[in-house]
UniProtKB/TrEMBL annotation:
Lineage summary: Eukaryota, Metazoa, Chordata, Craniata, Vertebrata
The encoding gene: CNTNAP3B
Covalent S-S links between cysteines: 887-914
PROSITE patterns, alphabetized: EGF_3 (PS50026), FA58C_1 (PS01285), FA58C_2 (PS01286), FA58C_3 (PS50022), FIBRINOGEN_C_2 (PS51406), LAM_G_DOMAIN (PS50025)
Gene Ontology cellular component terms for the protein in this record: basement membrane; membrane
Protein's organism: Scleropages formosus
Pfam families noted in UniProt: F5_F8_type_C, Laminin_G_2
Membrane topology: Single-pass type I membrane protein
Protein name (Swiss-Prot/TrEMBL): Contactin associated protein family member 3
SUPFAM superfamilies, sorted: Concanavalin A-like lectins/glucanases, EGF/Laminin, Fibrinogen C-terminal domain-like, Galactose-binding domain-like
Length: 1218
């Protein structure tokens, strides 16, 4: 057991025979002189050669707890070690490397011969033998070392099981009633499977701890009378590669039928009858045990502080079944690790033989690798045994031709031990993998190679396959075992870059560094994360592919539709699908399963009706969405006939509802929380002034109470209970709207830094294994630090190092690491720029704006934890140097937004908010829309645009019938002169211009037809026609040589003002126009938009019934009529991950003709007129959704719930320039 005070010197008193080494330079440089601060002999140990195969070994005499190590160089010399690793063992065989932070740890050594470098181990080591392996040394000297090891004695009780033995511990009656059970122990084994613990109790309860394929499985079975799950069975899987003959700790804690197994997993279960260790004892057949009983050793086995092995030694309260010994014998097993691309082992074989056999066991994560090769007798070819796609292949080839090709096994790159045996006897060759045999013809052999350097083609070793990286053991040739210790001592064979007497395999997927459900796979050197369908990307699936709000999608120029949002970015919450309604306010709509109007009728015996609402997001996601939003609402409807709602003013409420806080609420939509009122009660206009709800008047006629809930802490509605529905004649109906929120408090959260010495400080950033930082900035400065967080040695920093370079730097203990991005244009242009930096155990990356992401791989070994302890500084540093001047916005660290504005309010030199968004986002205002600044963001003014919507992109359309007309009339010139002093307006604009800009879209089946007409007060006109061939033509009458003067009117549809027409124009005008017109623009005038949206304030004359239509739009107006969704899919391709994908509805019929958008720009010169038309044709399809069935209605039921029907159109476009 471990001791608290454990720092005794362990080496100084040892005799010289306790020291061993790979070699020694001379007798005076022997390992026995390698004691700290001693000058005996040559003043320390030095090997014969200084290379990576040297080591110094110490036998401590017994298993000891080791807590620290100290080193020196060789006294009075230039020989010292600058870096080293350590290994430990119980027997002097089967070594284990000391690991820290998931890496083989390299200790920092000495810089001279005399100073002492002391290192305290983060985790104590329990071992008898310690081996120090120099990794690097003074380049001007040799390997030289003196050392001391610190620790203390270690006490333990050990029992060994042979696979058919067990200890049975029986509880006494009093102890079996204990409510807490704690089992702790260590185990070691070479067998990959076996039952270690089995406990049984009443009611069919049982607990079993089983080793299966090198992993620990905890099985819990509870009786049906107490089972909390459907079948009462639970299994937890932990650990990996536990069959390595090294000690492993496991603990199980059971409290009140709850289980805590290593990682705090809690399950139901209890046992109280008996418990066996090492196997399963069957009460039905005494002495019979599981065939998979444990074969190995258990140490310090405790049950509720009872030393079970000590009791077994004393034969108290224990039954010993089979051969249990109280010690731990070690099998003679010497593994070897092929760790690098130059690793191989060459062994001599007998020549001129017509038979051979060889066997080995291997374990690896790699799918490919050469296991064995040899040359056949009399130049008959070459034999290769190698891994290919996780299978073992045996091939015999000669002169490039494959003579024999045999495959056996599959999935052999699973990290488990697998056996390979082949035999060549009397012209017959057999290959057996894990006891499964394939066979073919074989020949005779020369020397045998195990492994071979990759692509190294020499006469001795040619390797056309990948190099093998993994472990091997139990190798034999002709039934003679290969002594790897003799190979290590260079007594036999030849090798390169091997680690003999240890298996260095590790499971890089346990624990998995893949986040958000990413699937971990691995090779020998690294791991990989498959992020497919997770919604995240990156080396560890850390970063979300989705925006965090509808506001963010809107400001990327996206239109209304269904999108996946990830409200906490790289945080733990999963993405969820919402509807983004992109209006002037960006609404996020979260749907639920019960939006239909639902009728309630009286029913005897039913006193209450309960309605539940399940949302498309879970409660954690809803909480995050609501907290992030500036405003949320949900509408409630209650239609009633002799059915009271809240029973106001003084009675107990008949109806109540719950939100996410699960608190009962007795107020209705439109009222204040806690008021027990409805909307009419707040406004004082209820049907009966003595009640606070219309329905509480209890009238025998239909009325209603409806209103909006907007208290965010109570949203969303999850449950409603309706109480007054059991009386004769009571009828009611309810409807709950979707949850709707707008505003993103995080997206526009900004601070302005106006002094270089100013900064904001926040709590320490915790991103030990993965960290992502994103923000927007704008500045006119040339440099400055965006943020910095320091530790004792570690740090993380992002800075603007020049006007066109951003630097992301950090140090996790391996030295400073930098990623730089240089931009082609300056970043100090006072426009918003985006920065995202990420650091994980595999790589670091930096992105600036939409430039390619710059990535750098992290070191394969070394520190991986980022350990910070100071405050996080934003906009500056602790030293108040290189401070940032400008704005920082939407700063997020691991998905958490820092409230810059709130902190800026109390910080000198920093102001909350940051104006000036149009310079960056003004491009989103299209079609002549004008960007208008707001405190938090901007808006688009569509006054002088033919379009509407948040970005002036929504077409204003109307369907015309023959005879319909819209005329926009300008003032006469003399009226303009009279009003010269008045404020100019669009009504007087464009009266005399040298050029006109005309744009519109249309859809029609009519040809020929008059589309657009402009006239002047001087009997001039310009007409745009569509001829019978579907081509645009123009007709005009011009009296001035240079100007189109005194414009009178712009007409779409039929012209009713009598004028002298060209005969062709007159003929077409008589027919009128039938079809759709959209986006009509004449210079800064939008006549169709004025007629539809502002008829009373605009000089327009409308003939016929003009109604706004969606005929010119390519998407439905009803957001839920057809689902527009951003699909959660594999984003490994180049698709825009934020683009909505429309589920198109196929057409039933096609319109004849097409849709043409026309842009006309006319420039009048002295004797010439130039006109240019942009012609756009769209193939158009149309379908109609069928109406759903109507709900059951009573004759006087004053409302219905018909689903909307929507004509959907899908268009293909062709463009022509005329």
């Amino acid at each position: 057991m471990l001791n608290k005070n454990c720092d005794e010197q362990l080496v100084s008193a040892l005799p010289q025979i306790s020291f061993y080494s790979s070699s020694q330079f001379s007798n005076s440089h022997s390992p026995g002189f390698a004691k700290l601060n001693r000058r005996d002999g040559a003043g320390g140990w030095s090997p014969l050669e200084s290379n990576k195969y040297q080591w110094l070994e110490i036998d401590l005499g017994e298993r000891t707890e080791i807590t620290a190590i100290a080193t020196q160089g060789r006294y009075g010399s230039s020989d010292w070690v600058t870096s080293y690793s350590i290994m430990f063992s119980d027997t002097g065989r089967n070594w284990k490397q000391y690991r820290q932070e998931d890496s083989i740890w390299a200790f920092s050594g000495n810089t001279n011969a005399d100073s002492v470098v002391h290192y305290k181990l983060l985790q104590p080591v329990i071992a008898r033998f310690l081996r120090v392996v120099p990794l690097d040394w003074n380049p001007n000297g040799r390997i030289g070392m003196r050392l001391e090891v610190y620790g203390c004695s270690y006490q333990s009780d050990v029992a060994s099981f042979d696979g058919s033995s067990s200890l049975l511990y029986r509880f006494n009656q009093n102890s079996s009633q204990t409510v807490k059970y704690v089992i702790s122990m260590k185990f070691k084994t070479l067998q990959k499977s076996g039952i270690i613990i089995h406990g049984e109790g009443p009611h069919g309860n049982s607990l079993t701890l089983e080793l299966y394929k090198g992993q620990l499985l905890l099985h819990i079975k509870t009786g049906t009378s107490r089972s909390a799950s459907a079948d009462g069975n639970v299994m937890v899987k932990l650990g990996s590669l536990l069959d390595d003959q090294h000690w492993h700790y496991v603990g199980i804690e059971c409290t009140n039928r709850h289980f805590n197994f290593t990682v705090d997993k809690i399950f139901d279960g209890t046992f109280s009858y008996c418990i066996s260790f090492g196997g399963v004892f069957s009460r039905e057949k005494s002495g019979m045990f599981s065939k998979r009983s444990f074969h190995g050793c258990l140490e310090n086995l405790f049950y509720n502080d009872v030393n079970v092995i000590s009791l077994a030694k004393q034969k108290r309260q224990m039954s010993i079944m089979g051969n249990v010994t109280f010690g731990c014998s070690e099998p003679a097993n010497v593994p070897v690790t092929f760790a690098g691309s130059e690793s191989f082992l060459q062994l001599s074989g007998a020549q001129q033989k017509d038979s051979m056999s060889s066997s080995l066991q291997f374990r690896t994560w790699n799918k490919e690798g050469l296991l064995l090769t040899t040359e056949l007798y009399r130049d008959a070819g070459s034999l290769w045994i190698h891994l290919s796609e996780g299978k073992v292949k045996l091939q015999i080839s000669k002169l490039g031709k494959i003579l024999v090709d045999v495959t056996a096994g599959s999935g052999l790159n699973d990290g488990q031990w697998h056996s390979v045996d082949f035999n060549a006897r009397k012209g017959r060759l057999s290959l057996t993998v894990d006891k499964e045999m394939s066979s073919s013809v074989g020949f005779s052999f020369f020397d045998m190679f195990t492994g071979c350097p990759e692509r190294k083609n020499t006469q001795e070793c040619r390797n056309p396959f990948h190099v093998f990286q993994g472990c091997m053991r139990l190798m034999s040739v002709d039934n003679i075992a290969i002594d790897l210790i003799q190979v290590q001592q260079s007594l036999t064979g030849n090798y390169s870059d091997l680690q003999i007497d240890l298996c260095g395999i590790i499971d890089r997927c346990l624990p998995s560094h893949c986040e958000h459900g990413g699937k971990c796979t691995q090779s020998w050197n690294t791991f990989y994360c498959n992020c497919t369908s997770s919604g995240y990307i990156g080396a560890t699936c850390h970063s979300s592919i989705y925006e965090q709000s509808c506001e963010a999608y809107k400001h990327k120029g996206k239109t209304s539709g269904f999108y996946f949002i990830d409200v906490d970015g790289s945080g733990p919450l999963n993405p969820q699908k919402v509807y983004c309604n992109m209006t002037d306010k960006t609404w996020m709509v979260i749907q639920h399963n019960n939006t239909e109007l639902t009728k309630l009728k009286s029913s005897s015996g039913i006193t209450q009706h309960l309605a539940y609402f399940n949302y498309s997001a879970n409660m954690e996601q809803l909480r995050a969405i609501i907290n992030q939003a500036e405003y949320c609402e949900q509408e409630l409807f209650y239609h009633c006939k002799k059915s009271r709602l809240l029973n106001t003013p003084d009675g107990a409420s008949f109806t109540w509802w719950m939100g996410r806080t699960e608190e009962v609420q007795t107020y209705w939509g439109g009222a204040r929380p806690g008021s027990q009122k409805c909307s009419c009660g707040m406004q004082g206009d209820c049907l009966n002034s003595s009640h606070y709800c219309n329905c509480d008047a209890d009238k025998n006629e239909w009325t209603n109470d409806s209103g909006i809930l907007s208290f965010k802490e109570h949203l969303p509605v999850t449950k409603i209970a309706f109480g007054d529905i059991n009386r004769v004649g009571s009828e009611a109906a309810y409807k709950v709207g979707h949850l709707q929120c707008h505003g993103d408090k995080n997206f526009w959260n900004a601070a302005f830094f106006n002094k270089e010495t100013s900064y904001l400080h926040f709590p320490t950033f915790h991103g030990e294994l993965s960290a992502d930082i994103s923000f927007l900035f704008k500045t006119t400065a040339f440099l400055g630090v965006f943020l910095e967080n320091l530790g004792i040695k570690d740090f993380i920093r992002i800075e603007l190092s020049s006007s066109s370079e951003v630097v992301f730097s950090y140090d996790v203990g391996n030295g400073p690491f930098e990623v730089r991005v240089k931009t082609p244009t300056p970043l100090n242009d006072n426009q918003w720029h985006y920065v995202r930096a990420e650091r994980n155990v595999k790589e670091a990356l930096l992105q600036v704006d939409q430039l390619p992401v710059r990535t750098q791989k992290a070191p394969k070994n070394g520190h991986i934890h980022l350990q910070l302890n100071s405050q996080l500084f934003v906009g500056g540093t602790a030293s108040r140097q290189k401070g940032f001047l400008g704005c920082i916005r939407s700063l997020q660290l691991n998905g958490v937004t820092l409230d810059l504005e709130e902190r800026a309010k109390i910080t000198p030199g920093v102001k909350p908010g940051c104006p000036g968004h149009c310079s960056s986002y003004g491009r989103l205002c299209q079609n002549e829309g004008k960007c208008m600044e707001k405190y938090n963001g901007f808006s688009c003014d569509c006054t002088f645009s033919a379009f509407t919507g948040p970005f002036c992109t929504k077409e204003v359309s109307a369907y015309f019938k023959p005879g319909m007309s819209v005329a926009y009339t300008f003032k006469e010139p003399h009226e303009l002169d009279k009003n010269a002093s008045s404020q100019s307006s669009s009504i007087y604009s464009d009266l005399t211009l040298r050029g006109e800009s005309i744009a519109f879209s249309f859809r029609t089946t009519q040809a020929p037809v008059l589309l657009f007409y402009v006239s002047t007060y001087y009997q001039e006109y310009l007409a745009v026609l569509l001829n019978r061939n579907g081509k645009l033509t123009k007709e005009f009458n011009l009296t001035s040589d240079t100007e189109f003067s005194a414009i009178r009117s712009v007409v779409i549809g039929k012209i009713y003002d009598s004028s002298d027409f060209d005969p062709e124009v007159s003929r077409l005008n008589a027919l009128g126009f039938s079809g759709c017109l959209s986006g009509v623009q004449f210079n800064s005038i939008a006549p169709l938009k004025a007629a539809l949206l502002h008829p009373s304030s605009s000089p327009v004359t409308v003939r016929g019934q003009l109604v706004e239509s969606q005929c010119g739009a390519s998407s439905p107006s009803n957001p839920f009529a057809a689902e527009t969704t951003h699909s959660l899919s594999d984003h490994s391709g180049t698709a825009d991950t934020s683009e909505p994908i429309v589920n198109a509805i196929r057409s039933d019929s096609a319109l004849i003709g097409g849709v043409i958008a026309v842009v006309i720009f006319v420039i009048f010169c002295t004797l010439a007129i130039m006109a240019r038309f942009l012609y756009r044709r769209k193939e158009t399809f149309q379908s109609r959704e069928a109406k759903g069935p109507k709900p059951d209605e009573s004759p006087d039921f004053p409302f219905n719930n018909e689903p909307n029907s929507q004509n959907m159109q899908s268009e293909n476009q062709k463009e022509f320039l005329m």
